[in-house]
Amino acid sequence: MVRMEHLPVEVIGNILSRLRAARDVVIASATCKKWREAWRNHLHTLSFNSSDWSVYHDLTTSRLEILITQTIFQTTALQCLSIFMDDVDEFSAAPVIAWLMYTRDTLRQLHYNVRTTPNVNIIEKCSRQKLEVLALAHNSVTGVEPSYQKFPCLKSLSLSYVSISALDLSLLLTACPKLTSLSLINPDIAMSDAQATMKLSSASLKDIYVEAVSLDNFILEADTLENLHLKDCTLELFELIGKGSLKELKIDDVSVLHLDIGENTENLQIVDVSSFTIMWPKFYNMISKSSNLRRLRLWGVVFDDEDEVVDLENVSVCFPLLSHLSLSYDLRDVCGLQGTSHLENVVVLELGWTIISELFSEWVAGLIERCPKLRKLVIYGVVSEAKSPEECQTLANFTSAIVRLMRKYMHVEIQFEYE
Amino acid sequence: MSTSTDNNASITQESGPSAAVQDIQKKIVVRTADGEVFNLKEEVAMEIDIIKTFFQEDSISYETVMPLPNVEGWEMVKVIEYCTKHVELKHKVDGYKERKAFQALFVQNLSTKSLLALTNTANYLEVKYLLDFLCQAVSEQIKNKDVDYVRELFGVENDFNDEEYEQVKAEAPWAHENLNNDLH
Q: HSE of B16 in the Cβ direction (CA atoms, 13 Å)?
């Protein structure tokens, strides 16, 4: 049997690198000389995360700065560094700069979420040549010089609670020719002109996630974009300029007056809209040419015009490949069940109510009838705590109606999810 | 066992999609330290870099039985198991859950000693993804432990003398001080 001593030092370095947490790595490195050597020369990943070790919480900020410095300075070829300390208010600039400078030549991934005082422009100080992943939070980017600050290998960029000007963000993207994934969470975007317009452009971007952004105009030019996800944003205009590569569109709790994802939507496979005020004809027009659509979800949407409704006839004609349909909105008298064409490929139906009504079971029945290949039905409901006798009766009627209905469709799996 | 020549001949002549003939998959034969012989499917064998390199030499034919003097029979079984699953999942679109479940089972009944031996073997055989997975599994065993526990678990001898050890501790006093009593 092999004992630990027989493992090559590089393999021990691999084990320590997967251990990640600084305290654990340091302890393990104290077991014997070989482990110490592995720690010194073959460690590529190190993290200081507040969730790793409860003792971090009890240490003063300056003690933390010292221990992080001491530890990092004992490594030689660090590739991934993660400093994620939620309960630290701020680190001083000097040690932070020291950490960045020391790892500059070899670092490929940097995760850093602590405010620095005075502010350090991390973009300027961190490793650039080899950096592939950068995740920054609670810091300010005070200037970007794309002419000499390039990130030739950066694939993934995440900025959370970061202050940056719209211009600098746009310049930063031009400095990252291989960027495929961008995540912007609650940024503080400084604008120069009166009308708040942000224009971002990237020839390589595939995924973008934007959360908690408030702007007048957001224009994104991205010829290879596949996934667009907006959450909790307030915009007047959002425009995607591209070559029709978009596969997935997800909008959650967004307020936007004009949404434009371009003429070419033939690659769109997933459309997921929730908590949104929708102008159905306009929205429908936007996606009507997506004949490859597989999943459509309209959840908790409110129709701008009270008379609007999701017209199933149009849905079945325009999206023949649709396999998953999820609908939840307040039903009116008109359920959108006119017409006779079937949703030939729908196998999963998710239908929800927030306020139970008599209409709902009728609507469910009508929809099931239109889905000859249905295999699964999930009913989502909201049950309020204080139920009046009328509400109880309605719920009971609904339950009976569904039971009667499902007897006709024994092959369909039915699930209920109540909150 | 005399079909190996036939296999070679039929495969080189076969270029069209006649599925029936392609069923005769090329096999690669290895012999482990304890004398056990294993027939590997070619696609699985090629996952193991040391085997791949060996058979890429022009002078070596597929009939050769490759010796693996540093590998035990039981280890080869495990390696084949992992690589076969890996190849299977390569073709699946959404294999994440399945992979996780398989990985959990794979290490479930392995003692620490066996885990270490297998790690060493994966390194020797040069199967990177298996090595990385096993290193991860090993690292999970020493999370939040103290130095003595780690030494004991891995059978590591402390080869520092007292002076050296004090120096080691002095390099990271914050980690070695028992600031919290929740360590084992």
A: 2
